[in-house]
Every structure is written in structure tokens, then in C-alpha cells.
Design goal:
alpha/beta; 6 strands; binds zinc ion
């Protein structure tokens, strides 16, 4: 009877990445950091240090734009620039990098909030609603993007596959993670968001989870995190103002018995 999860941390580096890394090391928690290229340039030392301590760096584009709002060439340019900067970090760390992992900013895969098309008719959408999806709720057919957006998503998938991007979270047990197109996708989503970002100064109070206790309860109450023998894919963030929140939430997941595993 075990409950496991991969830990992924988006938007690195921040001014407090070292604190986050030190905390994870102290608890023996592995993690994949999906970095912005721009933030790698702002704080390369923190990410070189993270790589040397065994953490995995992955691509989250250069400047975190929504793929649905940009053309394919722009998004590919953003991915390339970020990958170039990640390569540079690994070189500086003296560690060979054999992987390419990618997550879209705002999990916008080219189709806006419309994340996954199981069979071109079902909806999976982003943000808070992700929780409902993970819980198996089938959302109404609304805000469906135009066919061109699905073409864009497909073109980007083709690019990612040709460049050797893959989804490393192979043990995830959520059916929807593998059903439909996600089973073949070259990018990474998540099955549980700790929603730490809702406590950022510019977001706090505007979302359903208003304080750290709310966010702890969200995890404690999440049915998927509490299934025996499950493996989840947890999304957290590396943002300067909320690093203490992020650490406290990870700590609470550890206290609840979740074991974090390596890719
Ligand atoms: Zn992000």
C-alpha cells in the first residue's frame, strides 16, 4: 500500500531556488524543474547547483507565452532558446544531459484551455478545472477552439517528437493521462496541482483556495492522491514570493505519506 508521486516544479529559476533545492535535498525528494530560459539567464548559478545535486532540468519555453496566442514558429523559437540555455547549464555543471522534457506554459498546448482531445469530442481544460478532470468529470462542450488550433497543436507535437522530446512520467496511474492523445504526446501535463501560485501577492484571495490551510486540505481531500498504489504527477512552482508556501505544501504531502519518486 503506497502512494507515490513525481514532483515537478515550474518556472525556475527564482531568487529562492537555492532554498527550495536545499529543502528537497534535506528530505531526499527528487524533482524535475521546468525552467524558463529567461529565468535561467537571470540565475544560472542556482540551476547549475541544482543539476549538480541530482535534479533534472526541463524546458518550459524562454518567456512563458501561451502557444494558442502565438504562431508555431514563435513557439518553436521559444522552445529552442530554452533548450539551448538548459544545455549550457548542464555543460557548466559538467553533467551529460541525455533527455529532453517539455511542459507548455499555462499548459496551453496550442489549443488554449482545451488541453486534451480524447477523441476530438471530449474536453479537458486547464487550471483549477484540471482537478475536476483528474476526478473524472466530463466538462461541457464549450469554448472549443477552431480547427486551426488543433492543427497548431499537432504541428508542435510533431516538432517535439522530431526533436526527441518525451514524457518521462511513465508510471503515472491516472487513466486520462494515457488515454487518447496523451498516451502519445511528447509534452508533459500533470495530475495534481498544489495551486501554490494562488497565494502569490497578485493572485491571493481571487481563487477558491485562499490560504495555506485551504491548500493543504485540497491535497488531503484529493481522491486521486489518496488511492492506494497510485502514482501522481504533482505540479508546484518556484516563485520568489511563495517558496515557503511551496515548501510547506510539499512537506505536508510527505507527512500525509506520499513518497516522491525519480523519473
Ligand atoms: Zn509556468
Amino acid at each position: 500500500m503506497t502512494r507515490k508521486a513525481y514532483l515537478t516544479i515550474d518556472d525556475s529559476a527564482s531568487e529562492r531556488t537555492d532554498d527550495l533545492v536545499d529543502y528537497l535535498v534535506s528530505k531526499g525528494v527528487p524533482a524535475v524543474f521546468f525552467c524558463w530560459g529567461e529565468n535561467l539567464e537571470n540565475n544560472p548559478a542556482a540551476m547549475v547547483r541544482a543539476v549538480k545535486k541530482g535534479f533534472v532540468l526541463a524546458n518550459h519555453t524562454n518567456t512563458h507565452q501561451r502557444a494558442s496566442e502565438k504562431d508555431v514558429a514563435f513557439t518553436i523559437g521559444e522552445i529552442k532558446q530554452c533548450e539551448f540555455l538548459i544545455e549550457r547549464i548542464y555543460k557548466e555543471a559538467g553533467i551529460k544531459k541525455a533527455h529532453k522534457y517539455f511542459r507548455y506554459p499555462h499548459v496551453d498546448r496550442g489549443t488554449g484551455a482545451w488541453l486534451i482531445d480524447y477523441d476530438q469530442s471530449n474536453v479537458v481544460t486547464s487550471g483549477i478545472i484540471m482537478e475536476e478532470i483528474a476526478a473524472g468529470v466530463n466538462l461541457p462542450d464549450k469554448n472549443k477552439p477552431p480547427a486551426a488550433a488543433f492543427d497548431k497543436k499537432q504541428q508542435l507535437q510533431t516538432y517535439l517528437k522530431e526533436e526527441g522530446y518525451s514524457n518521462p512520467f511513465t508510471q503515472v496511474t491516472h487513466p486520462w493521462f494515457w488515454e487518447g492523445e496523451m498516451g502519445q504526446a511528447a509534452d508533459s501535463l500533470f495530475t495534481y496541482s498544489n495551486a501554490d501560485w494562488m497565494l502569490q501577492p497578485n493572485h491571493i484571495g481571487k481563487w477558491p483556495y485562499k490560504n495555506i490551510e485551504d491548500l493543504k486540505q485540497k491535497a488531503r481531500n484529493n481522491p486521486w492522491l489518496n488511492i492506494d498504489n497510485s502514482v501522481n504527477l504533482v505540479l508546484a512552482h518556484d516563485k520568489t514570493p511563495i517558496v515557503d508556501v511551496t515548501i510547506e505544501l510539499i512537506d505536508d504531502m510527505l507527512d500525509s505519506g506520499i513518497e516522491f519518486i525519480e523519473v
